[in-house]
Design a protein that fits this description.
Two copies of one chain form a homodimer. By secondary structure, chain A is an alpha/beta fold. Chain A has one domain (8-211): Aldolase class I (TIM Barrel). Helix content of chain A is 40%, strand content 16%. The first copy, chain A, has nine helices and eight strands. Chain A has an eight-stranded parallel β-barrel with strand order 1-2-3-4-5-6-7-8, surrounded by five helices. In chain A, strand 3 (67-70), helix 3 (73-78) and strand 4 form a beta-alpha-beta unit. The longest helix of chain A is centred in the last third of the chain and has 18 residues, at 195-212. Chain A is globular.
Amino acid sequence: MKHFDLSLYLVTDRSQSQGRPLEYIVKEAAEGGVSMVQLREKSCTSREFYRQALSLKACLKPYNIPLIINDRLDIALACDAEGLHIGQTDLPCDVARRILGKEKIIGLSVESIQDALDANTLEIDYIGISPVFSTPTKTDTATELGLTGIREISTLSRHPGVGIGGIHPGNARAVIQAGAEGISVVSAIMSAAVPRQAASQLRDIVYQSKKIK
Amino acid sequence: MKHFDLSLYLVTDRSQSQGRPLEYIVKEAAEGGVSMVQLREKSCTSREFYRQALSLKACLKPYNIPLIINDRLDIALACDAEGLHIGQTDLPCDVARRILGKEKIIGLSVESIQDALDANTLEIDYIGISPVFSTPTKTDTATELGLTGIREISTLSRHPGVGIGGIHPGNARAVIQAGAEGISVVSAIMSAAVPRQAASQLRDIVYQSKKIK
């Protein structure tokens, strides 16, 4: 049985950390209450990615927070991360599952109703519903799905879903109320002046919204 | 026991194929006598890399030519390639060996005498001695090692070495005579008007030079 909590899922983006080391932001975010962390790197060498992954794994261990690696199955294996997050242009899910085994967490980004339907046939553990709102973080994603998209996908999906894209304290409650199990954020924590406080505020909103739901 | 022949080792570079599919060049090169092929991709998605790797593996199977994947251990695992080639900024060799197992071929690029000395302590199967001559293919590599470098490294290394960088029919013999087990080429085959002929010519030079050596 895999244990993970999608409530507040931080995805890293070094370019939004305002010069602060990822380790600092991740530790602060852990103190503030993030429940999962995804390391996403798109322009460094494999060696740097590996070292960064090892370092974040060590940061998260005392908190028992799972580290998920974006796209790179080899890095996930190399650092023995708790899981892998794949997009529609990454390795196919069945290939990733075969190599990673049943014990690891695999998440998949879905960008449409059709993606979510297709995901129902796959051995994955959660879906990232993306993008909920338009966002400057990712420029290569599909049209925003909005709260209607979250609602439709949460209803039809057999996997728990986490919303991602443009989520902040002002709209987090609505995303949970629309059916998501959690929210995933980049800039709302990465760029926050006090990442611990930002995480804590978001966590409180998610937990309160889940109670009401 | 791993069987591989470093004599003529093609490294792919889509940008040098002059619009021709990699499958075409690789089949032609196989017909012409290349003994190993390395798939190197630096700017495509993981899904594209995986599909390309599967496709080249199918091309090479009838010739019993090993497919080696550059850098990406996950792609090597996903397509069950015969091996992995890693550079000094890729995953550490010991990590790659642990994940790939003893049966797969692992090659390492060495760019200096010191790299070659360090490689003697590693569980790898061959070294790529790079760059022998200056080349427009890779812009991120160290100073050219020249024939003197090939000679020194071949003498001190416990691994067989393949020279790479600026090798063509005019200097291939000298590289083998300096101690390399083989030559690795990119543009000499990728950009050739008739890749099969280019491969065949290079193979003849290598085999003749080895006889004399």
